[in-house]
């Protein structure tokens, strides 16, 4: 008969591939910034290339979800959600790359890229909910009350961008779509990080080592994704966002961590010995 067996993360070829790709992209970034700081076009090429990490991670997510039964299992659904989230990030990055490399002018906001970037938030929220379900978490007022830090952190995450960037917001000049995006981005990101954080805190003493580490890994990936988006908002508001700057490197780290978070859910099916 067939049985399901988990793989050790760094014994898996896909994890090794992600590590090698991360090393190559990071080395490339360092060479550009240390030795060719004025090579604008080369930096644009790098900025159009690092999304390869999110593309590979997203495709692996869909493949591994199939091994778990796809939509028929909670784990399959969470892998589909995070995989599609990465692919939507890839779409948004691709639109940015087209503007930078071919159209050669600043991308408007809102734009087609926001379909990918904001869409990924929706799927990350759904993935975080499925992660909680796979971990056996059932949210209630009592569980939230027992973990005040899990309530305080999302409030801080929402208030901070508001106080820094959105205080005195002019809704009339921004328009409906931009206003929804400006407020929806930080709120949505706070939601998926908070769900993952609460899941980890509520299962800290109940989950086994393997699942606990998986939840922590995905929590870390979501937190870095939030940091990358927050930094983008900060740099864009200050007028110093640049292609292939340190902000893009944070996005690369976020994609790398999410790819590993997905890969660690990898399973394989082996023939069990007859008893």
Question: Could you characterize what this model shows?
Answer:
With 275 residues, this protein is mainly alpha-helical. The protein has one domain. The protein has 11 helices and 2 strands, in the order βαααααααααααβ. The protein has helices at 13-35, 40-47, 52-67, 74-103, 113-134, 141-146, 148-166, 171-174, 176-202, 209-238, 246-263; strands at residues 2-6, 267-271. It has a two-stranded antiparallel ribbon with strand order 1-2. α9 (176-202) runs antiparallel to α10 (209-238). The longest helix has 30 residues, at 74-103. The radius of gyration is 20 Å and the shape is globular. The chain starts with a strand and ends with a strand. The model is unreliable at 268-275 (pLDDT under 50).
Helix-strand string: EHHHHHHHHHHHE
β-strand percent reads under 5%
Radius of gyration: 20 Å
How far apart lie the N and C ends?
A: 10 Å
Strand adjacency order, main sheet: 1-2
What is the strand tally? 2
- The averaged pLDDT comes out at 84
Q: Which range best describes the helical content: under 10%, 10-25%, 25-40%, 40-55%, 55-70% or over 70%?
A: over 70%
Shape: globular
| SS content category | mainly alpha
Low-confidence spans: 268-275
> Major sheet: size, sense and barrel closure?
2 strands, antiparallel
Please give the domain count. Answer: 1
How many helical elements?
11
